[in-house]
Write a structure and sequence with these properties.
The protein has 75 residues and is an all-alpha fold. It has 2 helices and no strands. It has a domain of 45 residues.
């Protein structure tokens, strides 16, 4: 989890059952910790997706040719 720096007091209307489920899944002790962990996961997932998209684009631009030596892609 990232270091806590700029904390602000926010008020949200959230689904209690979702918070409880997320708290259990994330093994968090508090609701605040649950939301922090969930936000960290969303940010990490976004960054990972961005890196994968960039790598895929570089791969496509490289001009490499992929051959289906087993003939599985023709089906």
């Amino acid at each position: 989890m990232t270091a806590v720096r700029n904390r602000v007091h926010k008020h949200f209307q959230l689904d209690v059952s979702k918070i409880k489920r997320a708290k259990k899944v994330l093994q968090a002790k508090t609701e605040t910790e649950t939301i922090e962990r969930a936000l960290d996961l969303v940010i990490e997932e976004h960054e990972t997706n961005h890196r994968l998209i960039e790598a895929n684009e570089r791969f496509i631009r490289s001009g490499i040719e992929i051959k289906d030596v087993y003939g599985n892609l023709d089906e």
